[in-house]
Structure formats: structure tokens, C-alpha cells
Predict the structure of RNase H type-1 domain-containing protein.
Amino acid sequence: MSNFYVKVVVLASNGRLPGGDGLAAFTITEVAVTLTVATLVIIYFSRLVKNFIIKTKPPPLPPGPPGLPILGHLLFIKPDFLQYVTKQSKIHGPIIKLQLGRKVYVIISSPSIAKQILKDHDAIFANRDVPAAAVTGTYGGLDILWRPNGPGLHKLRKLVVREIMSKEGLDACYEFRRREIRHTVKNILGKIGLPINLSEQIFLTMLSVTISMLWGGSLNGEEAKLGLEFKDRVEVFVGLFGEPNVSDIFPVLKPLDLQGIESKTKKHMSWFYGFFESVIEQRTKLGEGPKMAGSKDFLQQLLELNQRGDAKTSISIKEIKALLLDMIIGSTDTTSTTMEWAMTELLRHPNKLRRVTEELDAIIGDQTSVEESHLPRLAYLEAVLKETFRIHPPAPLLFPHMSSETTIVAGYTIPKNSNIFFNVWAIQRDAEFWEDPLRFEPERFLKDTEKRNYTGNCFHFFPFGSGRRICVGIPLAEKIMMQILATLLHCFEWELPNGRKPDVKEKLQLVLSKAEPLVVVPIINCDGALDVKNGKADVGVICRDCTGMVLDGATERVIADEAEVVEAMTVTKGVEFAVKNIWENVLLETDSLIVFSKIKKKMILIESGN
Ligand code: HEM
């Protein structure tokens, strides 16, 4: 018997020696074994429980910079939120967390994590945290942008995608788009040689295009002032949505509206909605608006749905107004900013600009205007637009998505109701995927075109978002931007005032625009200038690109565009014109109808007065 065994037996038998009581010795052995087994079982189970606890403990929140008590990172996000989050992501990794008050903000700057959220967990992350300004500005989120994910959102998205953005919908209102682009050309022709704010010009074109598609209206002529007012108000309105609002961060302060954001939003909202109400009232009084190839404009369709009274498809007047505002805001700032950046980059890279104009000359040739049918063949221009989206995405962080459940992503816990930003600006400039990412190189989109598209499947390049909140306006955006850019570049040459180089400083409001608007000088892109003398004073008719514009030679102001040539010549009836074609020396009488073609570089006489 070992010493140890003797000791245990003696202790267990209260000092009595074994042998006298065999039963006691047996019990002690049994107790020892039982104790050992119990200890082992306890150890085993405690390990099991520990493992279970470790396994079921939620992963940590994403890392991030330390914040201040109560305020969190509120004081750090200004003046440049995009630069701040990009810098913090470089330090803390591709998924980071910031806190404003009690609200959690998660910023993603990795394609694979973006894919997990926007594809694998799309339904969970398809909500929005509606800021107080948007609640006020959209009747509590009745539009598409701020609407919670659900049947109401699907109904509105389907309506826009099927009725406006479908091929048939867009074809049906092509004439309106064409008309507005020609008005823009005419406007610019009146400003040849003068500096113009291109951003403003393009914004007005886009606004006119959108309004004409929505209800057949136009902002040209007398209404141009209205266009500028729209522009100012859209800018302010959008700025109010983007402004960090203490009412959102600390909801108890909401009734105080400390920054006055809600009251300002209300003021602008009443202006927009008042405008829409007058359009709707007019439509209801006068009946259907202008028809486009037998189809109805969007407003007409909405009003008919409003009359239907069927809960599944019916739409209220408030929804109609909120939707119209969405379409106008969604389509103007984003597209005009993109075109402004595209022009800026082309002016900075004359060799790329040359390649665009060569392509335009080859495809459009001597035809008088850029038509939508030309667009699919303008591969290089399309690459220029994509490269512009890559380097200057108008929505560099997309629009924030909100999680409707606590979810684990990339090994971190994203709490319910967090706001998720996707830093497409950083992802699309990431040297791991894009060679020489800061260089403007449209050629990279000429290879691998299928892979490098923005339909939401490539998470290295997704300027329109992805998943169920992807932008509804892509088909319109791509058509209209291609056509406007092609027209501007085919019809005019562009210079910077005083030979300056355009700068690329950015400014983030809701869209990432140029800090300073692009001011450029349009010059005549045609050698075929014609002089007209009436014997008393110089009067000019100058051949202008594509459009057959008639201009006053002294002031270089437009007298008429092609459609109005007849009228212009009637106005000048009785005045003797001697029109000298620099190639053919043609003399015309006043009553002649003339159009000019740029490419043929000659004046075409289509009808003689006598
Ligand atoms: C350069 C052109 C455009 C760009 C870059 C752009 C970009 C975007 C982005 C990034 C989003 C948010 C996606 C997300 O939340 O993940 C969005 C949403 C939206 N866009 Fe666009 N957009 C453009 C043009 C347009 C046009 C032309 C329209 C309409 C006429 C439009 C209407 C909308 C609407 C209504 C939404 C909200 C969708 C939703 O929340 O479900 N956009 N857009």
C-alpha cells in the first residue's frame, strides 16, 4: 500500500487503522474515485461552458478612432467628412465605426465587405435612417429615396423603372430631350467667345429635360429665370439634408430645431410643392399634356393611378409630389456634376479630348446633330464617362443604408439601426485594383467592358450603388449624359478664360462637385464662317455647328436656330443681303431660306425667295 493510500485511509477512518474495518477502507477508495471523477467532470464542463460562452459572445463592434463622451465624433467630421473617414479607414481598416451621439455610423471601404452587405445581406441593409429634414421635406418619407424598404417602396420603384426608365418610356420622350439639348446649343451659340458657367448651363439643360419628361413643360425662354431659382433651391434643399443636424443625433432636441434646419426645409418644400400643385391643377383643368409618340407623360400616368383607388397600385397626391421632387433632385445635381467633371478632365488632358472629337467626327460625320442612335457607337466617350464616375463619383459615400437587424459582417457586429456608408470614392481609387488609380485614363474601360460596368455587380466600381436601393435613374442618366456631352464637344471648341488650367478641387455636399464651378469659353468649331453685308451696316450670318444657327454678325447673338430660319429671314425681308460663302461665293437674296452644315463646310440653299 502506498503511503498516500495509507494516509487517505487513516484520515477517512478518523485515525483508526485499516484492516479492523474493511468496509471503511472500501468506502474511502470509492470516495476518492468519485471525487476524482467529479473533478474531471467539472473541469470538462467548465471548459465546455467557457467555449460555449466564447463562441456565443458577439464579435466586437468595428474598430475606429476614439470619440468624445456624449458627442462621439461630432466635432471631427467637419469640414470634410469624406477625407476624415478615408483617413480613419487607412488607420483602422476597411470597416470602421464612428459615433455621433448614440448613433452608430459604419464606413465600408472594401469591395468584399461591401458585397457582403449589399448582396448577401441586402434585405437587412435596405433601409434608410430618415433625417429630420427629409421627414419634413418628403411628407415623412413618402418619396423613393427616404422610403423604408417594403411594399410602398417597391411600388414606387417599379413605377419609375417600368414607366419612365424602360426603353419604351425613354424612347417615347426622346423628342423632348432632343428639343432641350438643341435649346442649350442655341443658348451657347448666343454666348460664343464669352465665359460661361458650364455647370449652371448643364444643370439648366438637365432640369429642362427632366421637367419636359415629367409633364411636358419647358424652362426655356421666359422661364429661364425660374430654372435658376429651381437650381438655387435644389442646392439649398439638398444641402439641408446633408447638414449634420443635432435633432437627428439627439432626438430629444428635435422640438427645438436648434439649427433651424427643419423650418428652412419647410419653407423650400412649400415652394416646390406649391409649384407642383399648380402644374397638377393646370393638368386637371386642361386635360392631358403634350403627347409623346402616342404615350402619356409621367404626370398623366401618376394622376391616372391616383384616380384608380386600388390600394396596390394607387398613389396619393402627396406621393406624386414627393416623387416628382425625387426625380428632379435625383436627376439634376448628379448628372450635371458628372458632366462638369468630364469636361474638366478632358480640358486637362488634350490628347483624350482629341480622341473624343475624332470619334465624334468619325461617327457623326456631316450630320447636323447628335442623335441617340449615334450613342452606342461612341465607345471612347462612354469610357470617358465611366472614368469620370470612377475618379469623381457624384455620391462618393452612396446614400447611407440602415441595418434593420444586428448583423455580423466581416467578423464584426453591426448593431441594428446603424447607418452604413460605402466609400466608393476610396474603393474606386484603390491601387490594389486600379493601376495608377489617380491617372485619368478612359482607355482602361475599353478593355473588359462587361466586367467594368456600373450595374451593381462589380464592387470595385459602383457609383450608382447596388442591390435593392440601386439608383433607379441609370438608363436616363447614361443616355442623357452621353448625348449632352457629345453635342457640346461636337458643336463647340472649349477654352478656359485666360488660358488657365482647370482645377480639380472637390467640395462635398450631398454630391461631390467641383469646389469652383467650371467657367469656359465656347468657340466656333467651324471654319465655315460666313459674312453678310447689307450695304449699310455689317450683319452677319455665321455658320454654326450642326444646328444651322443664324447669328447677328455684329453682336454674335443668335437670331434664329434652324427651326426658326424661315421666320428670321422673313423678319429681315426687304434688307438686301449679300451672303458670301468663303468657298463658293454664293450670293443670296433676302427671301432665301438657308441652313448651314458644319461638316460640308458650305452653305446649303434650300429655297430661293424668287
Ligand atoms: C450621374 C447620375 C446619377 C448618379 C451617379 C446617381 C447615383 C445614385 C446613388 C449612389 C443612389 C443611392 C444608391 C444606394 O443607396 O445604394 C441613387 C439613388 C437614387 N437615384 Fe440616382 N443617380 C444618378 C442619376 C439619377 C437620375 C437621372 C434619377 C432620376 C430621374 C435618379 C433617381 C434616384 C432615386 C429616386 C434614388 C433613390 C433610390 C432608392 O432609395 O431606392 N438618379 N442614385
Q: What stands out?
A: The chain has a mean pLDDT of 79. The longest helix spans residues 22-56. The pocket of protoporphyrin IX containing FE is lined by residues 144-145, 157, 326-327, 330-331, 334-335, 338, 394-395, 398-399, 463-465, 469-473, 476-477 (CB under 6 Å).
